[in-house]
Write a structure and sequence with these properties.
The chain has a 7-stranded antiparallel sheet, sandwiched between helices. It is built from 6 helices and 7 strands, in the order αβαβββααβαββα. 37% of the residues lie in helices and 23% in strands. The longest helix is centred in the N-terminal third of the chain and has 19 residues. Helix 5 packs across helix 6. The relative contact order is 0.21.
Length: 207
């Protein structure tokens, strides 16, 4: 309960800061369909993010992924950035994170779905035991957006999961879901911060 209240508090504060710069909050919802999820994967997840993108990160201590609902915070450092506002700084970022059991109703929907992309993954999704939902805001908080896309891709890779982009209605595997290229991270962040309204949450300490 204490941890969940802390997540709620962080989420509220971050959303208030976004609203203060007069940007509309537009949530992006992305799912990973998988057969497994356990806390042993956390160190591998953190390591894959660093190896692939040179982003040091640390997840909230003693987290239980299967018992987390709401904002999941990370301490992150972009080692290769040339953006002065964040260069050499540890930041607080993250995304909303929910884990659900895949049910028979979802399987029925998928059986009726059509499209070339779903055909490659239909059976894998129907057989999946869990779906993990990530929700984040890429427009008013580009750092959150960039880190979320990266974290989703690396977790899906480790879980051998199928990614579903609800906004575009397209299914991917982790190789196809290369939304953020390593050498384009700064460009993606600056794309939404040309007016000097880049939201930065400097990391202080875990509570």
């Amino acid at each position: 309960l204490k941890i969940n209240l802390f997540f709620l508090f962080l989420n509220v504060i971050i959303k208030i800061k976004k609203l203060c710069i007069n940007k509309e909050l537009i949530a992006i919802d992305i799912l990973i369909y998988t057969n497994k999820l356990n806390n042993e994967i956390i160190p591998q997840w953190i390591n894959e993010i660093y190896l692939e993108y040179n982003i040091k990160c640390e997840i909230y201590p003693n987290i239980d992924l299967n018992d987390t609902e709401g904002f999941l915070p990370f301490k992150i450092l972009f080692e290769d950035t040339n953006i002065n506002e964040i260069k050499g700084k540890y930041l607080l970022s993250g995304f909303e994170f929910y884990v659900y059991d895949n049910d028979d109703n979802m399987a029925e929907v998928l059986r009726d779905d059509s499209g070339e992309d779903i055909e490659k993954y239909r059976n894998k999704i129907i057989d999946a035991k869990k779906n993990i939902m990530f929700s984040f805001d890429e427009e008013s908080d580009p750092i959150e957006g960039v880190f979320s896309y990266i974290a989703i891709r690396m977790l899906a890779k480790l879980l051998n999961g199928v990614i579903y982009d609800t906004y575009r209605g397209i299914y991917f595997d982790s190789n196809e879901f290369n939304v953020i290229e390593k050498d384009k991270i700064d460009d993606m962040i600056l794309e939404y911060s040309e007016n000097g309204d880049l939201i930065i949450h400097e990391f202080e300490e875990w509570h």
